[in-house]
Specification:
Length: 420
């Protein structure tokens, strides 16, 4: 395998980009020449296939999104022990995805803390190298720890992040990074005060290989100027959700919560620095026993780049789907368009996710991205923390995505379930 520096000349990834850009060694990988014959078949448009499914030959990718934790091949960007991290507040399963990405990029996970010893015990089963701390303060006072990863209850994430940054450490939180605009203002002030990072695990772009490759192609001009993005983020509600999940004050609302992924990818794919929420809606259509739960939401956005966007999010993934959610994204440009099928390719014998469809003047291509692209964000984040740079994601971008979803939530119109 070789690094992405050579992709501009690769026959399966050829795009007109003008002068080539140099990239760091931990950017995603693409095939060497001897891999091309194996990959080419997956890049060509396939004929229609039978939808006959053999469930005995397929497996559910994850019961629900809360336990979804991608893994990739390790590509260390630092020396062993150079970048020590800790995990705290294990309230959401995304902490596993956060830690996986950082460890694969070379981070050393040394400590873990949660007030619930059962959560700590389960975490240590997955990461036996992590030693339990007696308190949060013990982690914050450890000078060797450079970053704290956390997946706290959403309305507690900002306060935790401020404590982490004031202790001189960078902070990496699960989405949504906060639940109110007042919390956002406090977090911004703490970043200005401490000069630490408040980074966010927007996993539906950062930890999905087809989305990573789509972002690269867009930045290289493969589909021209982006004019519209449509995102869908269905999730499976499942069973065993914690009580905070159904408490509006604690989780912040559906647009604030899983809508944050959509706001972030809109900004990223369109190159927008800001966006106006043109309209937004929320509702509880199928869960009257949980009156504070919002199981549906949507929003229309207008970016300062001139691009428009629409996203729909919900908790209605049916039991028959072999994944926790059929997340998709469509990006329309002036010279072509892309479709991402992130977690499943429905009605296929092998319902593999990470499928990217590219249509442009040269034709139609289907790219199976799993295991071929990687997750550059985590290595870039580690180097940013060590070098005090901004290559993984700017702080302004992380906060702007949060602001957009918070404004969408705040101004949303509650709608009733459709009548029969």
């Amino acid at each position: 395998m070789r690094c992405d520096q050579d992709r501009d000349s690769h026959p399966d990834f050829l795009v007109n980009v003008g002068s080539r850009r140099q990239r760091r060694v931990f950017t995603p990988l693409v095939p060497d020449a001897h891999d091309v014959s194996d990959l080419r078949e997956s890049l060509e448009l396939k004929n229609a296939v039978s939808c006959r499914l053999s469930t005995s030959n397929t497996t559910m990718t994850s019961a629900d999104g809360m336990t979804h934790a991608p893994k990739s091949k390790p590509v260390a960007v630092c020396a062993p022990g150079e970048f020590q991290i800790a995990a705290v507040s294990l309230d959401h399963g995304h902490i596993h995805g956060q830690c996986n990405g950082l460890i694969e990029a070379g981070a050393t996970l040394t400590r873990v803390y949660d007030p619930d010893p059962q959560k700590v015990a389960q975490f240590i089963k997955a990461y036996p190298q992590a030693k339990p701390a007696r308190s949060e303060a013990e982690i914050l006072e450890d000078p060797a720890i450079k970053l704290v990863a956390a997946a706290a209850i959403p309305n507690l994430r900002a306060a935790l992040g401020i404590r982490v940054m004031r202790a001189g450490k960078d902070y990496f939180t699960d989405k949504t990074p906060m639940t109110t605009l007042a919390q956002l203002a406090d977090a911004k002030a703490a970043v200005d005060e401490t000069k630490r990072k408040y980074m966010v695990y927007y996993s539906e772009r950062l930890h999905v290989e087809c989305a990573v490759l789509a972002g690269q192609l867009i930045s290289e001009g493969a589909i021209g100027k982006v004019i519209n993005v449509i995102g869908t983020g269905p999730h499976r509600l499942g069973k065993g959700r914690p009580a905070w999940f159904f408490d509006h004050e604690q989780y912040g609302g559906i647009l604030c919560d899983i809508g944050s992924h959509q706001a972030e990818q809109f900004l990223s794919f369109t190159g927008s620095k800001d966006a106006t929420v043109v309209a937004s809606h929320r509702g509880n259509f199928g869960n009257p026993e949980h009156p504070e739960l919002e199981d549906f939401g949507d929003a229309t956005l207008l970016g300062d780049s001139g691009a428009t966007g629409y996203f729909r999010i919900d908790w209605f993934t049916p039991a028959g789907l072999r994944s926790w959610g059929d997340g998709r994204c469509f990006v329309i440009g002036t010279a072509g368009y892309l479709e991402m099928r992130k977690y499943i390719d429905v009605a296929q014998e092998k319902p593999d996710g990470d499928q990217l469809f590219v249509v442009d003047a040269q034709g139609e291509r289907r790219i199976s991205c799993a295991g071929k692209v990687g997750f550059p964000f985590f290595g870039q984040l580690i180097r940013d923390c060590l070098d005090r740079t901004e290559t993984a994601m700017s702080q302004a971008h992380a906060f702007k995505a949060a602001e957009i979803c918070l404004r969408a939530q705040a101004q949303s119109v509650r709608i009733a379930a459709p009548t029969a």
